[in-house]
Amino acid sequence: MIYYVGILDGSGDTWGVRIPDCPGCHGGGATPEAAISDAISALREWAAEIHTEGAQLPKAHTMAEILADPENGPELRASESSVLIPLLLDAGRTVRANVTFDAGLLDAIDAEAERRGLTRSAFLASAAREKIEAR
Fold first, then answer.
1. I need a labelling partner for 129 at 20 to 30 A (CA). Which of 53, 70, 84, 89 fits?
2. How many other CB atoms are found less than 10 A from the CB of residue 44?
3. What distance in Å separates the CA atoms of residue 9 and residue 76, rounded to the nearest whole number?
4. What is the mean pLDDT of each run of 10 residues along the chain (135 residues)?
5. Could you count the other beta carbons within 10 Å of the beta carbon of residue 38?
6. In Å, what is the CA distance from 65 to each residue of 23, 36, 96, 97, 135?
7. What is the DSSP code string of 5-34?
8. Which domains occur in the chain, in start order?
């Protein structure tokens, strides 16, 4: 998985994340967590568009490289922080996998999936994506 460095900035009910390696890709929200979540979604959409156009994704620089860059690091304001934004791209194909669970956990998974109107596979995929992106 690729991680891009994001610059989180804001206060109160306005927060934003810009991703220096990905021009025009940013997220926002009422909390830092909401802004990061929006940046994760924006990065996925931005990368999918780049891929559709046949272009290569930009190199993901390390946090040290971003912070050493005169456009980002030295001018990092007191209100800004660096965060890692994961890029989890769908491959566009499904693969069957055999997994093992405790019977009680599987019952709980099935009940929650049904409550949400999802298949077991869709529920597990969304739970896995959420866990991976919450790193």
1. 53
2. 19
3. 10
4. 92 90 95 94 93 90 86 66 89 88 96 95 91 75
5. 17
6. 16, 20, 39, 38, 21
7. EEEEEEETTEEEEE-TTSTT-EEEESSHHH
8. 1-92 (3.30.160.250), 94-135 (1.10.1220)
